[in-house]
């Protein structure tokens, strides 16, 4: 019954910014962890950023730390990913995921039970 819908992707030039949004519905998320993953063709899905829903603690992959910011809006049940200074290597399909009933953010895709359909981010040089 949980549904996640990502939006905000697009085609941009290197150095610009995008803001992705994940709209969550169909469940209670106050005791959950939410995360953004990304996957490029032929590559494994990798952790980008995560947030503890209740406390708001954030976690980032080294490759995006300092450029990306994850945030949540409890009232709207949304999670955002602000992506600044985008690089061509950021090109991927970005997915929102929920680790339901767990407050601990992890970087393992198998720990997350619910996934959105993804939104494409393409960064040209």
Structure description:
With 125 residues, the chain is mostly beta strands. It has no helices and eleven strands. The protein has strands spanning 3-7, 10-13, 18-25, 33-39, 46-52, 58-60, 68-73, 78-83, 92-99, 114-115, 119-124. The strands form two sheets. Strands 2, 4, 5, 6, 9, 10 and 11 form a seven-stranded mixed β-sheet that branches. A four-stranded antiparallel β-sheet has the order 1-3-8-7, with no helix packed on it. β4 and β5 form a beta hairpin.
Give a quick rundown of the structure:
The chain is an all-beta fold and 125 residues long. The chain contains no helices and 11 strands.
List the helices and strands and how they pair.
Layout: E1 3-7, E2 10-13, E3 18-25, E4 33-39, E5 46-52, E6 58-60, E7 68-73, E8 78-83, E9 92-99, E10 114-115, E11 119-124
Parallel strand pairs: 2-11
Antiparallel strand pairs: 1-3, 3-8, 4-5, 4-9, 5-6, 7-8, 9-10, 9-11
């Amino acid at each position: 019954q949980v549904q996640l819908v990502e939006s905000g992707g697009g085609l941009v030039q290197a150095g610009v910014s995008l803001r992705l949004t994940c709209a969550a519905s169909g469940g209670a998320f106050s005791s959950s962890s939410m995360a953004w993953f990304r996957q490029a063709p032929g590559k494994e899905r990798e952790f980008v950023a995560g947030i503890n829903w209740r406390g708001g603690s954030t976690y980032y992959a080294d490759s995006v730390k300092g450029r990306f910011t994850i945030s949540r809006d409890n009232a709207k049940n949304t999670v955002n990913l602000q992506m600044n200074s985008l690089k061509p290597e950021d090109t991927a399909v970005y997915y929102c995921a929920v680790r339901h009933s767990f407050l601990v953010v992890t970087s393992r895709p198998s720990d997350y039970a619910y996934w959105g359909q993804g939104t494409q981010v393409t960064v040209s040089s």
